[in-house]
Design goal:
Blueprint (H helix, E strand, L loop, with lengths): L3 H10 L7 H4 L3 H5 L7 E6 L3 H12 L4 E8 L2 H14 L11 E3 L3 H8 L2 E4 L6 H10 L3 E4 L7 H17 L3 E3 L7 H11 L6 E10 L13 H7 L5 H4 L2 H4 L2 H10 L7 E7 L14 E7 L5 E8 L6 E8 L2 E4 L4 E4 L3 E2 L7 H15 L6 H20 L3 E2 H6 L39
Parallel strand pairs: 1-2, 1-4, 2-3, 4-5, 5-6, 7-10
Antiparallel strand pairs: 7-11, 8-9, 8-15, 9-10, 11-12, 12-13, 13-14
Protein backbone atom coordinates (compact mmCIF):
# COMPACT_ATOMS: atom_id res chain seq x y z
CA UNK A 1 0.00 0.00 0.00
CA UNK A 2 1.18 3.52 -0.70
CA UNK A 3 2.71 5.05 2.43
CA UNK A 4 2.06 8.66 3.45
CA UNK A 5 5.60 9.54 2.44
CA UNK A 6 5.09 7.97 -0.94
CA UNK A 7 1.86 9.87 -1.41
CA UNK A 8 3.51 13.15 -0.46
CA UNK A 9 6.31 12.46 -2.93
CA UNK A 10 3.81 11.68 -5.62
CA UNK A 11 1.86 14.84 -4.85
CA UNK A 12 4.97 16.92 -5.46
CA UNK A 13 5.39 15.40 -8.91
CA UNK A 14 1.67 15.48 -9.77
CA UNK A 15 0.60 18.94 -8.67
CA UNK A 16 -1.65 19.25 -11.69
CA UNK A 17 -3.68 16.12 -10.96
CA UNK A 18 -7.39 16.87 -10.73
CA UNK A 19 -9.31 16.26 -7.53
CA UNK A 20 -11.85 13.48 -7.42
CA UNK A 21 -13.59 14.51 -4.22
CA UNK A 22 -16.92 14.95 -5.99
CA UNK A 23 -16.58 11.70 -7.91
CA UNK A 24 -15.61 9.77 -4.81
CA UNK A 25 -18.90 10.74 -3.16
CA UNK A 26 -21.01 9.22 -5.95
CA UNK A 27 -23.01 6.11 -5.19
CA UNK A 28 -20.98 3.09 -6.34
CA UNK A 29 -23.87 0.65 -6.54
CA UNK A 30 -25.76 2.90 -8.92
CA UNK A 31 -22.94 2.73 -11.46
CA UNK A 32 -22.05 -0.89 -10.74
CA UNK A 33 -25.55 -1.77 -11.85
CA UNK A 34 -25.32 0.54 -14.86
CA UNK A 35 -28.34 2.72 -14.18
CA UNK A 36 -28.71 6.45 -13.66
CA UNK A 37 -26.64 9.37 -14.88
CA UNK A 38 -23.24 10.67 -13.89
CA UNK A 39 -19.69 9.37 -14.18
CA UNK A 40 -18.43 5.82 -14.37
CA UNK A 41 -15.37 5.77 -12.14
CA UNK A 42 -12.57 3.76 -13.73
CA UNK A 43 -9.62 2.18 -11.93
CA UNK A 44 -6.42 0.69 -13.31
CA UNK A 45 -4.79 -2.39 -11.80
CA UNK A 46 -1.40 -2.31 -13.47
CA UNK A 47 0.27 0.63 -15.19
CA UNK A 48 2.30 -1.02 -17.94
CA UNK A 49 1.76 -0.56 -21.64
CA UNK A 50 -1.21 -2.92 -21.99
CA UNK A 51 -3.15 -1.54 -19.05
CA UNK A 52 -2.41 2.02 -20.16
CA UNK A 53 -3.79 1.19 -23.59
CA UNK A 54 -6.85 -0.50 -22.11
CA UNK A 55 -7.55 2.49 -19.87
CA UNK A 56 -7.30 4.88 -22.81
CA UNK A 57 -9.70 2.70 -24.81
CA UNK A 58 -12.11 2.67 -21.88
CA UNK A 59 -11.96 6.46 -21.72
CA UNK A 60 -12.58 6.61 -25.47
CA UNK A 61 -16.01 5.06 -24.97
CA UNK A 62 -17.50 8.29 -23.64
CA UNK A 63 -17.00 11.47 -21.66
CA UNK A 64 -18.90 9.89 -18.77
CA UNK A 65 -15.91 7.65 -17.97
CA UNK A 66 -13.41 9.14 -15.52
CA UNK A 67 -10.13 7.56 -14.47
CA UNK A 68 -9.98 8.01 -10.69
CA UNK A 69 -7.50 5.47 -9.31
CA UNK A 70 -4.52 3.38 -10.36
CA UNK A 71 -1.97 1.02 -8.90
CA UNK A 72 1.30 -0.63 -9.79
CA UNK A 73 4.06 -2.29 -7.83
CA UNK A 74 6.41 0.45 -9.05
CA UNK A 75 5.65 4.11 -8.33
CA UNK A 76 7.72 5.39 -11.26
CA UNK A 77 5.68 3.29 -13.68
CA UNK A 78 2.43 4.57 -12.20
CA UNK A 79 3.71 8.15 -12.52
CA UNK A 80 4.70 7.64 -16.16
CA UNK A 81 1.32 6.10 -16.92
CA UNK A 82 -0.56 8.96 -15.28
CA UNK A 83 1.53 11.53 -17.15
CA UNK A 84 0.78 9.88 -20.47
CA UNK A 85 -2.95 9.60 -19.87
CA UNK A 86 -3.16 13.20 -18.66
CA UNK A 87 -1.67 14.29 -21.97
CA UNK A 88 -4.07 12.34 -24.17
CA UNK A 89 -7.23 12.36 -22.01
CA UNK A 90 -6.79 15.40 -19.79
CA UNK A 91 -10.50 16.08 -19.29
CA UNK A 92 -11.20 12.51 -18.21
CA UNK A 93 -8.27 11.90 -15.87
CA UNK A 94 -9.25 12.78 -12.31
CA UNK A 95 -6.65 10.90 -10.30
CA UNK A 96 -5.79 12.58 -7.03
CA UNK A 97 -2.38 11.85 -5.52
CA UNK A 98 -3.90 9.72 -2.76
CA UNK A 99 -5.52 7.52 -5.39
CA UNK A 100 -2.22 6.32 -6.85
CA UNK A 101 -1.29 3.16 -5.00
CA UNK A 102 1.83 1.02 -4.96
CA UNK A 103 2.73 -2.39 -3.64
CA UNK A 104 0.98 -5.73 -3.80
CA UNK A 105 -2.20 -4.61 -2.03
CA UNK A 106 -2.79 -1.54 -4.18
CA UNK A 107 -5.43 -3.37 -6.18
CA UNK A 108 -7.76 -3.44 -3.18
CA UNK A 109 -7.70 0.35 -2.89
CA UNK A 110 -8.33 0.77 -6.62
CA UNK A 111 -11.33 -1.55 -6.38
CA UNK A 112 -12.68 0.42 -3.43
CA UNK A 113 -12.36 3.68 -5.39
CA UNK A 114 -13.92 2.55 -8.68
CA UNK A 115 -17.09 1.39 -10.39
CA UNK A 116 -15.20 -0.55 -13.07
CA UNK A 117 -11.60 -1.74 -13.27
CA UNK A 118 -9.21 -2.71 -16.03
CA UNK A 119 -6.76 -5.42 -15.00
CA UNK A 120 -3.52 -5.94 -16.91
CA UNK A 121 -0.55 -6.79 -14.72
CA UNK A 122 1.56 -9.88 -14.08
CA UNK A 123 -0.75 -12.62 -15.35
CA UNK A 124 -0.47 -14.70 -12.18
CA UNK A 125 -2.74 -12.23 -10.42
CA UNK A 126 -5.44 -11.76 -13.10
CA UNK A 127 -8.02 -14.24 -11.77
CA UNK A 128 -7.55 -13.26 -8.14
CA UNK A 129 -7.90 -9.53 -8.77
CA UNK A 130 -10.89 -10.11 -11.05
CA UNK A 131 -12.65 -12.16 -8.40
CA UNK A 132 -11.93 -9.54 -5.73
CA UNK A 133 -13.46 -6.84 -7.94
CA UNK A 134 -16.56 -8.91 -8.69
CA UNK A 135 -16.98 -9.71 -4.99
CA UNK A 136 -16.89 -5.96 -4.34
CA UNK A 137 -19.64 -5.36 -6.91
CA UNK A 138 -17.47 -3.84 -9.65
CA UNK A 139 -17.44 -4.38 -13.41
CA UNK A 140 -14.24 -5.88 -14.81
CA UNK A 141 -12.11 -5.88 -17.93
CA UNK A 142 -9.32 -8.41 -17.47
CA UNK A 143 -6.54 -9.15 -19.90
CA UNK A 144 -5.56 -12.62 -20.98
CA UNK A 145 -4.48 -15.08 -19.82
CA UNK A 146 -7.23 -15.78 -17.31
CA UNK A 147 -5.05 -17.96 -15.14
CA UNK A 148 -1.61 -19.49 -15.57
CA UNK A 149 -2.31 -22.77 -13.80
CA UNK A 150 -5.13 -25.02 -12.64
CA UNK A 151 -5.51 -23.13 -9.37
CA UNK A 152 -5.92 -19.81 -11.15
CA UNK A 153 -8.39 -21.27 -13.65
CA UNK A 154 -10.60 -22.36 -10.80
CA UNK A 155 -10.60 -18.88 -9.28
CA UNK A 156 -11.46 -17.25 -12.61
CA UNK A 157 -14.33 -19.68 -13.17
CA UNK A 158 -15.67 -18.69 -9.75
CA UNK A 159 -15.37 -15.01 -10.70
CA UNK A 160 -17.28 -15.56 -13.95
CA UNK A 161 -20.09 -17.40 -12.18
CA UNK A 162 -20.30 -14.76 -9.45
CA UNK A 163 -20.47 -11.97 -12.05
CA UNK A 164 -23.51 -13.63 -13.62
CA UNK A 165 -25.18 -13.99 -10.24
CA UNK A 166 -24.52 -10.35 -9.35
CA UNK A 167 -25.41 -9.10 -12.86
CA UNK A 168 -22.01 -7.49 -13.35
CA UNK A 169 -20.10 -7.22 -16.61
CA UNK A 170 -16.87 -9.19 -16.96
CA UNK A 171 -15.04 -8.75 -20.26
CA UNK A 172 -12.06 -10.79 -21.45
CA UNK A 173 -9.11 -9.24 -23.27
CA UNK A 174 -9.18 -11.97 -25.94
CA UNK A 175 -9.76 -9.26 -28.51
CA UNK A 176 -10.16 -11.36 -31.68
CA UNK A 177 -13.72 -12.03 -30.47
CA UNK A 178 -14.40 -8.38 -31.30
CA UNK A 179 -12.80 -8.19 -34.75
CA UNK A 180 -15.59 -7.75 -37.35
CA UNK A 181 -13.80 -9.77 -40.06
CA UNK A 182 -13.07 -12.66 -37.71
CA UNK A 183 -16.61 -12.59 -36.32
CA UNK A 184 -18.09 -12.94 -39.81
CA UNK A 185 -15.59 -15.61 -40.86
CA UNK A 186 -16.38 -17.72 -37.81
CA UNK A 187 -20.11 -17.29 -38.41
CA UNK A 188 -19.69 -18.65 -41.94
CA UNK A 189 -17.68 -21.60 -40.62
CA UNK A 190 -20.52 -22.35 -38.21
CA UNK A 191 -22.97 -22.10 -41.13
CA UNK A 192 -21.03 -24.82 -42.98
CA UNK A 193 -18.92 -22.83 -45.45
CA UNK A 194 -15.91 -25.15 -45.08
CA UNK A 195 -17.76 -28.30 -44.06
CA UNK A 196 -16.66 -30.37 -41.09
CA UNK A 197 -13.43 -29.15 -39.48
CA UNK A 198 -10.64 -31.71 -39.78
CA UNK A 199 -7.60 -29.69 -38.70
CA UNK A 200 -6.48 -26.29 -37.46
CA UNK A 201 -3.07 -24.64 -37.71
CA UNK A 202 -2.20 -21.85 -35.29
CA UNK A 203 1.02 -19.82 -35.43
CA UNK A 204 2.38 -17.05 -33.22
CA UNK A 205 6.01 -16.66 -34.27
CA UNK A 206 7.73 -13.42 -33.27
CA UNK A 207 10.61 -11.77 -31.43
CA UNK A 208 10.64 -11.88 -27.60
CA UNK A 209 8.59 -9.56 -25.45
CA UNK A 210 10.40 -6.53 -24.09
CA UNK A 211 13.60 -7.58 -22.33
CA UNK A 212 14.35 -5.56 -19.21
CA UNK A 213 17.90 -5.29 -17.93
CA UNK A 214 18.61 -5.52 -14.23
CA UNK A 215 19.11 -2.19 -12.44
CA UNK A 216 22.02 -1.63 -10.09
CA UNK A 217 21.09 -2.65 -6.57
CA UNK A 218 17.75 -4.11 -7.62
CA UNK A 219 16.54 -7.10 -5.63
CA UNK A 220 16.07 -10.40 -7.41
CA UNK A 221 12.33 -10.35 -6.77
CA UNK A 222 11.82 -6.83 -8.10
CA UNK A 223 13.81 -7.75 -11.19
CA UNK A 224 11.34 -10.58 -11.78
CA UNK A 225 8.44 -8.17 -11.55
CA UNK A 226 10.05 -5.69 -13.95
CA UNK A 227 10.72 -8.53 -16.38
CA UNK A 228 7.66 -10.62 -15.52
CA UNK A 229 6.84 -11.77 -19.06
CA UNK A 230 9.98 -13.91 -18.89
CA UNK A 231 9.31 -15.79 -15.65
CA UNK A 232 6.85 -18.66 -15.68
CA UNK A 233 5.76 -18.16 -12.06
CA UNK A 234 4.39 -14.75 -13.09
CA UNK A 235 3.38 -15.24 -16.75
CA UNK A 236 2.91 -18.98 -17.25
CA UNK A 237 5.22 -18.98 -20.34
CA UNK A 238 4.27 -18.37 -23.93
CA UNK A 239 1.61 -20.97 -24.70
CA UNK A 240 -0.43 -19.49 -21.86
CA UNK A 241 0.68 -15.90 -22.31
CA UNK A 242 0.48 -15.53 -26.10
CA UNK A 243 -0.71 -18.63 -27.94
CA UNK A 244 -3.91 -18.44 -25.89
CA UNK A 245 -5.14 -15.92 -28.50
CA UNK A 246 -4.82 -18.52 -31.23
CA UNK A 247 -6.22 -21.28 -29.06
CA UNK A 248 -9.24 -19.06 -28.42
CA UNK A 249 -9.96 -18.38 -32.10
CA UNK A 250 -9.60 -22.10 -32.83
CA UNK A 251 -12.05 -22.96 -30.04
CA UNK A 252 -14.43 -20.32 -31.36
CA UNK A 253 -14.26 -21.87 -34.84
CA UNK A 254 -14.90 -25.28 -33.25
CA UNK A 255 -18.08 -23.81 -31.71
CA UNK A 256 -16.79 -24.37 -28.19
CA UNK A 257 -15.77 -28.00 -28.65
CA UNK A 258 -12.62 -28.59 -26.60
CA UNK A 259 -9.76 -31.05 -27.12
CA UNK A 260 -9.67 -34.16 -25.00
CA UNK A 261 -5.87 -34.34 -24.78
CA UNK A 262 -2.65 -32.90 -26.16
CA UNK A 263 1.05 -33.53 -26.43
CA UNK A 264 3.79 -31.01 -27.06
CA UNK A 265 7.45 -30.21 -27.48
CA UNK A 266 9.38 -27.17 -26.38
CA UNK A 267 12.66 -25.83 -25.11
CA UNK A 268 15.21 -23.07 -25.51
CA UNK A 269 17.67 -23.03 -28.39
CA UNK A 270 18.50 -19.41 -29.23
CA UNK A 271 17.79 -17.12 -26.27
CA UNK A 272 20.30 -17.15 -23.43
CA UNK A 273 21.09 -14.75 -20.58
CA UNK A 274 19.21 -13.54 -17.53
CA UNK A 275 16.91 -11.21 -19.51
CA UNK A 276 15.16 -14.30 -20.89
CA UNK A 277 14.26 -15.56 -17.42
CA UNK A 278 13.15 -19.18 -17.27
CA UNK A 279 10.93 -19.27 -20.37
CA UNK A 280 11.16 -21.62 -23.32
CA UNK A 281 11.74 -19.85 -26.65
CA UNK A 282 9.75 -22.33 -28.75
CA UNK A 283 6.70 -24.54 -28.27
CA UNK A 284 4.62 -26.82 -30.49
CA UNK A 285 1.43 -28.45 -29.25
CA UNK A 286 -0.85 -30.98 -30.95
CA UNK A 287 -4.40 -31.00 -29.58
CA UNK A 288 -6.65 -34.02 -30.18
CA UNK A 289 -10.44 -33.77 -30.48
CA UNK A 290 -12.95 -36.57 -30.00
CA UNK A 291 -14.02 -36.17 -33.66
CA UNK A 292 -10.51 -37.06 -34.82
CA UNK A 293 -9.68 -33.46 -35.73
CA UNK A 294 -6.39 -32.01 -34.56
CA UNK A 295 -5.08 -28.53 -33.85
CA UNK A 296 -1.39 -27.87 -34.49
CA UNK A 297 -0.37 -24.84 -32.45
CA UNK A 298 3.09 -23.26 -32.57
CA UNK A 299 4.72 -20.30 -30.87
CA UNK A 300 8.28 -19.01 -30.91
CA UNK A 301 10.02 -15.99 -29.38
CA UNK A 302 13.38 -15.73 -31.12
CA UNK A 303 15.13 -12.83 -32.80
CA UNK A 304 16.04 -12.79 -36.50
CA UNK A 305 13.65 -15.63 -37.36
CA UNK A 306 10.65 -16.03 -39.63
CA UNK A 307 7.51 -14.47 -38.18
CA UNK A 308 3.87 -15.41 -38.67
CA UNK A 309 0.65 -14.72 -36.83
CA UNK A 310 -2.13 -16.84 -38.31
CA UNK A 311 -5.23 -18.90 -37.56
CA UNK A 312 -6.02 -21.39 -40.34
CA UNK A 313 -9.01 -23.73 -40.24
CA UNK A 314 -9.30 -26.66 -42.68
CA UNK A 315 -12.59 -28.43 -43.43
CA UNK A 316 -14.01 -31.05 -45.76
CA UNK A 317 -15.26 -28.34 -48.16
CA UNK A 318 -12.61 -25.65 -47.87
CA UNK A 319 -10.34 -23.64 -45.61
CA UNK A 320 -10.57 -20.36 -43.72
CA UNK A 321 -7.94 -17.83 -42.75
CA UNK A 322 -9.50 -16.22 -39.71
CA UNK A 323 -7.19 -13.24 -39.28
CA UNK A 324 -7.34 -12.44 -43.02
CA UNK A 325 -11.11 -12.90 -43.17
CA UNK A 326 -11.06 -15.26 -46.17
CA UNK A 327 -12.56 -18.60 -47.18
CA UNK A 328 -11.39 -20.75 -50.10
CA UNK A 329 -12.61 -24.05 -51.55
CA UNK A 330 -16.18 -24.80 -52.61
CA UNK A 331 -17.04 -21.35 -51.28
CA UNK A 332 -14.75 -18.44 -52.13
CA UNK A 333 -15.25 -15.38 -49.97
CA UNK A 334 -13.40 -12.40 -48.52
CA UNK A 335 -14.67 -10.09 -45.84
CA UNK A 336 -15.49 -6.66 -47.28
CA UNK A 337 -17.51 -5.18 -44.46
CA UNK A 338 -16.82 -2.51 -41.90
CA UNK A 339 -13.51 -2.72 -40.08
CA UNK A 340 -12.63 -1.58 -36.61
CA UNK A 341 -10.05 -1.86 -33.87
CA UNK A 342 -10.96 -4.90 -31.75
CA UNK A 343 -9.13 -3.45 -28.75
CA UNK A 344 -11.51 -0.48 -28.90
CA UNK A 345 -14.60 -2.46 -29.82
CA UNK A 346 -14.30 -4.70 -26.76
CA UNK A 347 -14.38 -1.64 -24.52
CA UNK A 348 -17.20 -0.05 -26.50
CA UNK A 349 -19.26 -3.18 -25.87
CA UNK A 350 -18.29 -3.39 -22.21
CA UNK A 351 -19.17 0.19 -21.36
CA UNK A 352 -22.36 0.07 -23.39
CA UNK A 353 -23.34 -2.91 -21.23
CA UNK A 354 -22.51 -0.96 -18.07
CA UNK A 355 -24.56 2.05 -19.19
CA UNK A 356 -27.59 0.05 -20.30
CA UNK A 357 -27.63 -2.39 -17.41
CA UNK A 358 -27.36 -5.38 -19.76
CA UNK A 359 -24.27 -7.22 -18.47
CA UNK A 360 -21.82 -8.99 -20.74
CA UNK A 361 -19.87 -11.99 -19.50
CA UNK A 362 -17.00 -13.68 -21.35
CA UNK A 363 -16.99 -16.62 -18.98
CA UNK A 364 -18.24 -19.09 -21.57
CA UNK A 365 -14.93 -18.89 -23.43
CA UNK A 366 -12.30 -17.10 -21.38
CA UNK A 367 -11.67 -19.91 -18.90
CA UNK A 368 -12.18 -22.58 -21.55
CA UNK A 369 -9.49 -21.22 -23.86
CA UNK A 370 -7.09 -20.60 -20.99
CA UNK A 371 -7.64 -24.17 -19.80
CA UNK A 372 -6.59 -25.43 -23.25
CA UNK A 373 -3.49 -23.22 -23.15
CA UNK A 374 -2.53 -24.53 -19.70
CA UNK A 375 -2.86 -28.10 -21.03
CA UNK A 376 -0.43 -27.27 -23.83
CA UNK A 377 2.10 -25.56 -21.58
CA UNK A 378 2.15 -28.48 -19.16
CA UNK A 379 2.60 -30.91 -22.06
CA UNK A 380 5.59 -28.95 -23.37
CA UNK A 381 7.23 -28.64 -19.95
CA UNK A 382 6.79 -32.28 -18.97
CA UNK A 383 7.06 -34.04 -22.33
CA UNK A 384 3.98 -36.06 -21.36
CA UNK A 385 0.47 -36.18 -22.86
CA UNK A 386 -2.04 -34.14 -20.88
CA UNK A 387 -5.81 -34.54 -20.85
CA UNK A 388 -8.51 -31.96 -20.27
CA UNK A 389 -9.67 -33.85 -17.18
CA UNK A 390 -6.19 -34.03 -15.66
CA UNK A 391 -5.95 -30.25 -15.59
CA UNK A 392 -9.57 -29.88 -14.44
CA UNK A 393 -8.97 -32.18 -11.46
CA UNK A 394 -5.52 -30.81 -10.61
CA UNK A 395 -4.56 -28.21 -8.05
CA UNK A 396 -1.34 -27.51 -9.95
CA UNK A 397 0.07 -24.04 -9.35
CA UNK A 398 3.17 -22.11 -10.36
CA UNK A 399 4.13 -21.27 -6.78
CA UNK A 400 4.02 -19.35 -4.65
CA UNK A 401 0.29 -18.73 -4.53
CA UNK A 402 -0.63 -15.05 -4.98
CA UNK A 403 -1.65 -14.66 -1.34
CA UNK A 404 1.83 -15.75 -0.29
CA UNK A 405 3.77 -13.36 -2.54
CA UNK A 406 5.65 -10.62 -0.66
CA UNK A 407 8.02 -8.01 -2.00
CA UNK A 408 10.63 -8.95 0.61
CA UNK A 409 10.59 -12.68 -0.13
CA UNK A 410 13.11 -14.77 -2.01
CA UNK A 411 11.88 -15.52 -5.55
CA UNK A 412 11.19 -19.12 -6.58
CA UNK A 413 14.09 -19.16 -9.04
CA UNK A 414 17.51 -17.51 -9.34
CA UNK A 415 20.16 -17.44 -12.08
CA UNK A 416 23.10 -19.81 -12.03
CA UNK A 417 26.78 -18.81 -12.31
CA UNK A 418 26.43 -18.48 -16.09
CA UNK A 419 23.60 -15.96 -15.71
CA UNK A 420 20.92 -18.35 -16.95
CA UNK A 421 17.93 -19.47 -14.91
CA UNK A 422 17.08 -23.17 -14.55
CA UNK A 423 14.55 -24.41 -17.11
CA UNK A 424 11.93 -27.16 -17.06
CA UNK A 425 13.31 -30.42 -18.46
CA UNK A 426 10.84 -32.44 -20.56
CA UNK A 427 10.84 -36.04 -19.39
CA UNK A 428 11.98 -34.99 -15.92
CA UNK A 429 9.74 -32.08 -14.87
CA UNK A 430 6.45 -33.08 -13.23
CA UNK A 431 3.58 -30.64 -12.69
CA UNK A 432 0.33 -32.61 -12.40
Amino acid sequence: MTTSATRRAFLKTSAGAASVATLASLDVARYAHAQGSGYIRLGMIGCGGRCTGAAEQALNTGQDVRLVAMCDIFEERARACLDRLQKVKKDQVAVDADRVFTGLDGYRHVIDSSDAVVIACASKFHPYYAKAAIEAGKHVFVEKPHGIDAAGLRVMAEACALAKTKKLSLMSGLQWRHNPAVEETVKRIHDGAIGEIVSIEENFLRAPYQLVKRKDGQSELLYHFYNWYHFCWLSGDDVIQSLVHNVDTATWAMNGVTPIRCHGVGGRSASFGEVYGDMFDHHAVVYHYASGARMYANCRTQNKCYGEYSSLVFGTKGRANLFAGTIEGETKWKYAGKGGNPYQIEHDRLFDAIRTGKPVNSGDYMTQSTHIAVMGQVACYTGQPVTWDEVAKSDFSFGPRPADVRLDMEPPTKPGPDGNYPLPVPGVTRLL
